[in-house]
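quick one, 310 residues, struct below
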Amino acid sequence: MTVMQQLTRTLHEVLTWLSGRGLEILLIVLGVILLTRFATWFKTMITERIDGNDLESDALVRSEAAKHRHALAQVLTWTALVVVYCISGIQIIERLGVPTSSLVAPAAVVGVALGFGAQRLVQDLLSGFFIIAERQYGFGDLISITGPGITDGVIGTVEDVTLRITKVRTANGEVIFTPNGQIAQLTNLSRDWARVVVDVPVPLSADIGQISEILRRVGREAYADDVLHPQLLDAPAVMGVQSIEVDQIHVRVVARTLPGRQFHVGLALRGRIAAALRGEGIHVPIELDTAEATSADDHAAGTASTGATA
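---
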């Protein structure tokens, strides 16, 4: 057989393979691309509809059901794409002439070898599953995460949730990706309702009765305010003396707010309290002399002096 005949035969075999299995592989790849685009478009459509319904409602905060549906749409899309990629990969391997049955034994050995290394991945996936199933948090929730290397905790808004990771954006605009399995403790600051705790330091010589009456008046005025009233579940209450120090006394004021609004309300309350005490000629410590805030984006600063529980 001459060289020309060998080249002709080889070219014929290549063309035959391309018109058969090669074409099938190309169709599988195109199908995967189309399915990926469709899944992404469908997820975007669902999430935009959920967000649109929230914008049309009169509620100041997103409902728990809407946050869960948003997170569930993201997780289901991610899971469906992973399944499609795995099945497509197996189909392509078969069409390349590699029998999948012969891969069982090597795959078992490789699986055992990589099992220890994949423990963290499995842990992340299982943790993500329980996060979604138990509705621990969802898209738009304000959460605080602690874990290895995050001893002080990170506070931010959930922007994305998958079975493997949680993406959180902080008040400074930083985006933090945390594997679900590495979350040691999580605090949801926007679940059902939140609490504002303001400890007001006053001089030791001050009249506690007068201070308490001023704080009650500030609470009533804040609850009657057109801006703060929709964010408060009830009027701020004066709990009394919290602690006594060498030169000052701390009087605690507590208020319940809508989820995620505790930082804005806390800043506003501190500003009103500082102004009211100054108006009565009572010395205001520098840590309380805070201007009234109007943006919930300042929640990182508010956390330093306002306690919040969910």
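Residues 128 and 259 are 23 Å apart (CA to CA).
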